[in-house]
Amino acid sequence: MTDDHRAAAAVPARTEPPRHHLAQFNVATLLRPLDDPGTAEFVALLDPVNALADAAPGFVWRLVEEGRPDATGMRPAGDDVIVNFSVWESADALWEFVYRSPHLETMRRRREWFRRHVEAHLVLWWIPAGHVPTVEEAMERLALLRTRGPSPRAFTFASSFTAEEAGLAPV
Predict the structure, then answer these.
(1) Count of domains in the chain?
(2) Buried-most residue among 4, 34, 85, 158 (CB within 10 A)?
(3) Would you say 108 and 75 are in contact if contact means Cβ atoms under 8 Å apart?
(4) What is the largest CA-CA distance in the chain?
(5) 40 located within any domain
(6) What does the alpha-carbon distance between residue 95 and residue 109 come to, in Å, rounded to a whole number?
(7) How far apart are CA 72 and CA 134, in angstroms?
(8) Torsional sign, CA 61, 110, 41, 65
(9) Predicted structure pTM score
(10) What are phi and psi of 111, to 5 degrees?
């Protein structure tokens, strides 16, 4: 190999921005109201965990209520159900945040604050990059997962699909 070939091989290929992102929506049914002392530790974790998400590699967007730093006041799934809704560059980026960051400690303690769900409480789906999904869209995807099971349109980490399988153009 000539020196010219080695130099060319060392130059990284230009990467294009992703053409699709992964939307994540989950619901959690509170054991007690957010202003109850039994939920105080969870409430105290909201701002730090949201700040971790905002700074995490691959984070794109999260739902916040107007005038608030979070979406805990939005109750599209019931008065005792809070939602978490975010968009990530990839499934790997979301997985790293959820299971390999300090967020994991909150996950481990979730039974202190939330009821166990017997049906799906988390749904993932691919969206075109730049699209900001709505809460209505998220609720529809969760309902689809609950009624029909995992599909390219609504899935979980355990039953994932690629963006191409969901009908989005390949990267």
Answers:
(1) 1
(2) 85
(3) no
(4) 71
(5) yes
(6) 18
(7) 16
(8) positive
(9) 0.86
(10) -70, -15
Provide the pLDDT for residue 10: 55
Does residue 67 come out as left (phi exceeding 0), alpha (psi in the -120 to 50 range) or beta? Answer: left
- Flag whether 128 is in a domain: yes
Q: How far is 36 from 39, CA to CA, in rounded Å?
A: 6
Q: What share of the chain is helix, strand, coil (3-state, %, to 5)?
A: 35, 20, 45
CATH of the domain at 24: 3.30.70.100
Consecutive 10-residue averages of pLDDT for the chain (171 residues): 50 68 97 96 95 97 93 90 97 96 92 95 97 97 97 95 81 47
Return the closest-CA partner of residue 28 out of 126, 150, 153, 142. 142
Dig out the tokens for 113 from the structure.
């604050």
For 72, 80, 97, the CA distances from 143, given in Å and listed in that order, are 21, 18, 25
Nearest to 166 by CA among 91, 60, 96, 93: 91
Q: How far apart are the first and last CA of the chain?
A: 31
Tokens of 166: 């969901």
Enclosing domain of residue 58 = 20-166
